[in-house]
Predict the structure.
Amino acid sequence: MPETDVKSKYEFQSEARQVLELMIHSVYSNPDIFLRELVSNASDAIDKLRIEGLSDEDLSGLAGDGRITVTLDAPGRTITVEDNGIGMSREELVSYLGTIARSGTKEFISAMRDAASTGRGDLIGQFGVGFYSSFIVAERVTVETRRAMSPEAWVWDSTGDGTFTVESGSMKGNGTRITLYIREKPKDEDAEEKDYLSKWVLRGIIKQYSDFVSYPIYMKENGHEHEEDNEPVNSMKALWIRPEDEVTKEEYDEFYRHITHDWEEPMERIVYKAEGTNEFHALLFIPSRPPMDLYYRDGRHGVQLYIRRVFIMNDCRDLIPEYMRFVKGVVDSEDLPLNVSRELLQQDRQTAMIKRGLTRKVLDSLKRMKQDKPDEYKKFWVSFGPTLKEGLISDPKNKEAILKLCLFDSSKGLRTSMEDYVSSMKDGQKNIYYLAGGTLTALAASPKLESFKKRGIEVLLLNDAVDELWAAASTNFEDRPFVSAASEDALSEEEDQVSDEEREQAKRLEDSGFVTRIKEVLSRQEGIAASIDDVKLSTRLVDSPATFVQKGDPISAQMRNMFKAMGQEAPEEKRILELNPGHPLIKKIAGESEGNNGELDLWCRVLTGLAQVSDGETVDDGRAFTEILTKLLDR
Ligand code: ADP
């Protein structure tokens, strides 16, 4: 007999087992959510059938009349949730209902354990873990299912004790029927558990959590065929069409959970109606924390598309720019044709208009959030700032608006906005200064900041990978150019007020031929020395003996490594070694090495190494570098 014909036993994956244990053994403050989760899955399954139907004629015939039926059998102590959606194949059944793929499960498990141990039962009420929530109220669950167009049906069966079985079934149509065998005794004698074997209780839960579900949910009671059974329990009213003041926060939050499967509340909600030639409604949300797939190329990015209240597709990327991929929600167009395809959307003029409108709306909402709820905005920024900043490169038209939303670290130890930066600019300061690449600690300690600090000029510290790309790309803010503090002539003449004494010191050293000798020695060295284009006495350094600056647009060592990792050639590097004429070490080297180029060779290696290390770079040959240092220190 082939293996698929017999009843096979499987073990749940370990995270699934832990979740199941929690469902079975802890007291859940809001057991009602089991029904919300099952209805939500049923609605998703019908969505999926519609989507597959778009590209598969055989399926399209099945997709027309999606419905969900909740059947109560009080004497038999069962509740059944049935849909005529996509169904599951045997492999899908084993993998989907034996593992947990959703993000944040680990956090969920530990939050549940904490809540259970501290008695803060209310915390866990908001959480749902999809299908597994069934075991909050059920002591046994069976899942009968048939994948659309498949000749075989299957039955999954488990008491949640660590294993489940799968065998062939007899279900006729496509879809899934989930039967919960309701636990006889409440887990906690004191807990007031609702009577889930009451039709009115079930109706109430469906109204409360699933009213907006866009397929009809029918309620049946075994043995009773009432007239009212022919009316769906849910209104199917699209939440995004209703005026904002007629919808409660709870309804919006439930809807958010329904479309994202997140168990937290969203951080922000955006309700938008565009009128005129291109009419659409949008209901968008910003999640409270970044989803796991934010940086996955094939992650679930984009919004749901409806056309005149009919669900068309999930994760529609053409309606919202890539740099706003953290935004979740629904867009419902009045004007797009119902038979639209992904290919068509890509070229459609109306789609582009919707995208422009939504982009502006999201930017506006973020602006308001930044003004009105600064603390919340900071949290937003930590989660999604790096993603939003990608727009500084990909969306030049909105560059200024995005810049106004940015929060940057600065050399003054502050989190600052562009407006704050500009308002605290020094008299005569023309440029906006930044230093990019590497860690925040390395940036904050860079010798390149010394002259800026001395002159009281603030420098933005840009440590996200994306920063260097936009900052160098001729960025302006309110007509002030961004200039890298690592570039050769960062400070303009009026900003760079050099004292007579500093000038004098530099001149003396210059006249002694010190710089010429260093250049000579460096020209014979390899490694880092080979990329040095020039040596200069600097007025930029205060406490450090040496640093590297660059000609043209500076590219950090981190950026060069990135080019290398991508197998690309970075632009040629032209470093300038700047030495601090007032620094005791430089004075000492100038004195001691006179007439002794061997000695100067060692010191040059030390100086270039120090300049690298102080910027968070690694020296080419760490061993050789430390040997030289040791030798010099030993003397
Ligand atoms: P989630 O819904 O968050 O993905 P669940 O544990 O609720 O997590 O479900 C796991 C998977 O099982 C779903 O993603 C879906 O593929 C499948 N599934 C659950 N319920 C159904 C259903 N009624 N019809 C078809 N597939 C389903």
